[in-house]
Every structure is written in C-alpha cells, then in structure tokens.
Amino acid sequence: MSAAAGTAMHRSAPNVYFFATCVIDMFAPDAGIDAIDVLERSGVTVHVPLRQTCCGQPAYTTGFPEEAAKVAAAQLDLFPEPWPIVVPSGSCCGMLKHHWPKLFANDPLRLAKAEGIAARTIEFTDYLLNVADLNLAHARRSPLRVALHTACSARREMGTLECGRALLQRLPGVELVVQAHEFECCGFGGTFSVKHPEISAAMTSDKLDAIRATGCDAMVSADCGCLLSLNLMLEKRREPQRGRHIASLIRERLDASAGEGAGR
Amino acid sequence: MHAEAPIKLADFHANARAALNDPKLRDSFSGAMDFLIERRARQFPDPAAFEQLRRVGEAVRQHALARLPELLVQLEERLTALGVQVHWAETAADANAIFLDLARRHDAQLMVKGKSMVSEEIELNHAMAAQGIDCVETDMGEYILQLDGDRPSHIIMPAIHKTKRDVAEIFHEHIDGAPLTDDVNELIAIGRRALRDKFASARIGVSGVNFMVAETGSLVLVENEGNGRLCTSVPDVHIAITGIEKVIEKLEHVAPLFALLTRSATGQAITTYLNVLTGPRRPGEKDGPREMHLILLDNGRTQAYREQRFRATLQCIRCGACMNHCPVYTRIGGLSYGTTYPGPIGAIISPHLQSLHETRDLPTASSLCGACGEVCPVGIPIPDLLMRLREAGRHSVAQSATPPQQALRGQGEVRQWAEALAWKAWRLLYSHPVLYRLLVWFAARLNWLTPPWQGGWTLARAPLRPAPQSFRDRLAQRRQQRR
Ligand code: SF4
User: How high is the ipTM of this complex?
Assistant: First the structure.
C-alpha cells in the first residue's frame, strides 16, 4: 500500500477513500475516527491518503482562488483508484465536487484529474444512506430527541439534508426534532466569522437558541465547521451541551447495542 | 420637509453593530422577513415548477443581456418613432442634469414621483431640492421616508424599518392637521389626501421602469398603489428613468418575468396595477402625458456587462427576495449597507455602481449560505458573484489568475498585505504534506499555547484550540491497536 493508510477488513469489501478535512484533523478528530468506524461497519474498507490536507475552501471563498488551486493541485494524485471519495462534511465535499474543477478551468491536465475526483466525491451521510444502505435497526433503542443542523452547503450545494434526516430516522428510539428557522445559516461561514464577527455571532446565537427551544437531548450535524462555531459559543456561554458529528451519534448507538448484546 | 440625506459612505461595521444592538429593529425586520418568506413560499408550492419558471426567467434575461447593445438601439428607435425622447446618462450627475433641464424647460417647481430605485441611486430628490424644485414621493412608503428625511431600507418595502407608531408620529409632525392615530387605514387616508393635491398641481411625473420592451417600445411598470399610474398619466410630462439593463426583447417576455417578480417580491400572484406605457398621448386620446422622456442610466452597469463573469448581476429584476431570505440583511437591516441597494443584490451590484473599494465590506458580509441564490427568480449565482468580487478587490489585474478584460473600479484596492501574506503562508503549509504534518503535529502538542484572544472569533466564542491528539495521530494509534 502506498501513502494510503488502509483499514482493510475483508478482501472483497468495497473500497472508499476518506477525505477527512483539515478541521477534523486538527480540531475534531473524534468525528473522523467515528466516521471511519461507521463506514467500516457498513462493510467497506476505508483508505485514508495521508498526504491529504485541506480542500482549499477558506482561501477560495475569501477571494484567493490561486492559493486554493495550489493546495488542491498538490492533492490531485492522492486518489488513483476508481473508488468513491467520502467526505464527512457537506461544505468540503462541495468544494471538491463543484469547485475543484473550476480552479483548473485553464489547465486541461489538472482539470481532467479534478473532474475525475469530483465525479467520485460523495458526502458521508449520502454514502451511508444511498450507497452503503447502512442498517441501523439493531442500534440502541433508548429514546433520544435529536436536533439536526444541516450546513448550508450540505443543504443547497450537495442536497444531503434528507440523507441526514433519513439516517436519524433509521436509528431506533431517535426522534428528530426540527428547530425554528431550521433552513437558516448558523453564521459560521469560514472567514466570515472573523471578518464580520458581530453578525456571525448574532446568527450563531439565534441558531443555538432555536435548537435549545426544541428541548432536544442531543444536537448533531454532518459538518464540523458549523459544530466548531456552535460548540465554542456554548463554551463561551458556559453552557454544558455540545453538538456532535452525526457519525459519533451513530457509532455510539451501535456500540451501545453491541454492549447490550454482549451482556446478554 | 427635510432634504433627503445624501448617501454617506458607510462605516458598515459600525452600522451593523448598532443595528444588531437595536432590539426593536431586529424584531421588526425578522418579523417582516418571516412574513415575506412565508408569502413567497405559498406562491411556489412546487419546487420543480418554480425551477421551471425560473429557467424561463433566467433565459429571457440572459438572452436580452447577450444582445444588450442591439436591443437598446432597437428600443431607442421604437421609442423615437412613438414620440418618446430618449436620453442617455453615463453618470448620476448626467441624469440629474437632464432632469433639471427638462424641469426648467417646463418651468416646473413640482414633480411627483412613483417608486424608483434608480432615482434613489442618482439621489434625484436631493439634486432637485438643491435647485429649488420639489420632487415629491407618492409611493406611501417612500413618502413617509421623505417626510422623515430617511432612506429606504428595502427595495420593495422601503419603509419596512418604520413601525406604525413611527408613521403616526411622522404624519402628525409633518402633515398639517394630521391627528396622532394608530389606525392603519386612517394613516393611509391621511397620506393619500396629502398627496392628491400634489398630483393635480405637478407639471412633471417621474417613474421608474420594471421592463423595457425593445420590439414595441413599451415601458412596463409594476405597482400596487396606483400612484405610478397617476404619475405617468396625470402630469403633462412623464419622465421615466431606469438602468440600461432593464431591456427585454419581446412583449411576450414580460409574462414570465412579471409572474416571477410579483410572487418573489410580495408573494402576490399578480399586482394591483400593471402599466404598459407605449408612447405619450396620441391625437384624440383623452389622457396621458403630452410629452414623454426616457432616461437610460449607465452609472457603472457597463462594467458588469463588459466582464462576462459579472454579467449575471444585470439579470436582476429587483424583486428583493434575496434580501428577505438573507440572514445577514434580516439582522442588520437595509440602512446598514449605506448603499442604494442593500442585501445580497446590493452587495453584488454596488461595487460596480460605486467601486470595489468604497463597498469593500459588502461582498464579505455573507456567510455564502446560498439562501439568496436559491430564491433568486432569475437564477443569479449570487454567492459565486460575491466570491468573484472578493477576489477582484484583492487582486490587481496583474495579480489575477484569470485577469478581467479591463480593471474594475477599485480593482485590487481592498488588498491588504497581511491578508495576502497569510494566505501565501497557508498555501505553503497546506500544499506541502510534510510541512502540513509538522503543523498538525505541533499544533496538537503545543495546544496549551493557544492564544486566548483570537481576533473577531473570540468575541462571542471560546478560542479555537487544536485537539491534544490530531485525527492522524488517532488513526495511527488505531492501526497499531488493530495489528
Ligand atoms: S438578485 Fe435575484 S432575488 Fe435579488 S433582487 Fe435581483 S432578482 Fe430578486
């Protein structure tokens, strides 16, 4: 095996690449490990190319596409096999799928590679639901009211809102609660949160209030950028709740059921 | 009556901060926007049907823009044949000079004006007042603002930031004999009565235009109050003003755009009035203006037209849906932008009308959530345009990876060396896997060094602190354990 750290389970299992995202790498490793764990339970072998860094979105959206292009260019050869590339974040996934090709509009060689990657890139919940068709019927059954925050790029660019909802509905005992203004942005927006901190904070704060008003037991999202912003505001407010990646909730429910089973 | 406040170059950050701290404003805006969102949604119950209609609207607008110069020539020919005098204005000052000249020729001291954002753009009221000419707003919302010396905060509902109470007080203070009342119907009646006399005595009526039809020379005006019809039919002279991009090829192209406009703007299937004005009063006709003029304003639009990557900006039909759905606009209101057009459409058009530098905070004042692009009835990719403007502000022509044909106004003037350098450093680290791995390694181990203060981020959030073990550390461990 080359630079990819494979987590082979079974010879004939389907293979996927995993693009972890730099946010998960540095700030939310649990989400990445849990996502891999859940993917493996769905029966696939997960390959993580270790030379991966960032999708380039921060520079791209701030108006420095030439820098984003260089970062993307350094990663075009990391996914040589024709396997799906699973990304546990709607917005980074959207970057690979919709914007990497734009970065190389005038560079036919790289454009072909970027288009090849774009065609195989798939968001995590989309993969679990529509490709792996993950069975969750045996997961833990204890009642849990869950609010789902769907990132704007997941909702509007990737169209994966329903994937997240459907996965939650597959979890026995989980009741999906919908916060007011659910369609509205959480205010993170990458460098927006630094360039316009007051506006961003007002949006994040409203989002947290709306989620709290549902009286949910847990808050999940498939985007660690949004979660970082929401959680760090909760921390600043000295409130104990934290949002988690949807993969972490799924894994926890599966682990708990495995535990229950072992005890019996 | 107050003179209208001139456009002030906004301190966007200060304005936004003040607005965020004004609970009355935030409540009234978010309530009003929720109402409009809901009304629009009811008009488009089927997303697929909306998508289909939107494609037609987009195609009509793109078709017109692709042939803009020809269509404008055709329009001018048709209008001239109909007896309408066409004037071309490159700048706001040129447009005001044309107004002034016409007013002098007709010895007009009073003009009545229907709602027109382009007249706001050139600050017509202000320019006329400076020459002793009274230009009175007749749209109720605009009239309220004019009395109060205030500016529109929404392109469709200009006085949306005023409460019923505010209006009552403004009328009571500025209109002779107006009682202080909270009754909306009575307030409207007071306003209407005050305006009636103005219609009767004005020599000149001014209006905007929603669509100009090249094949027929018709000016189409969409409104609900009927004041537009009065402004364009009662006074002897009608002067219409609009931007050059409003031309469409055929009369049949009005139908889909009208359907999209009213549904997107106010959630109405149809407005109370749809005026199609084709030339001045003809011999034998009993009403209509004896003289008709059209002023076609450029004011920076050709810049957006010239650069293909910005041309979609001009597809806009000014419905305001992008504003209603914008989480930023909803929270800071329209006045914070300090531009004629606020909200997402303001952020994409103002840099062309003013300059990238003057409007530098607008393209970044968006989380790129995409709500605007999702509802735009003519399919303008607003988030993409915002990103392109961010780029143009930060790159001179020479620095651009894909340079524009010609420098935009203010091109590269938003660039700050520290920001450019930071992204270069970022690129260096993130495009070299070894450096990146070192960065992550150190970040995890030195995470206790995380600065407690991180610029704007820590204003309302705890600092970003790297996890004590990175994802790749954890992954390596996991593999070890599995062996
Ligand atoms: S940009 Fe689109 S949504 Fe916004 S005002 Fe123009 S047409 Fe309406």
Answer: 0.94
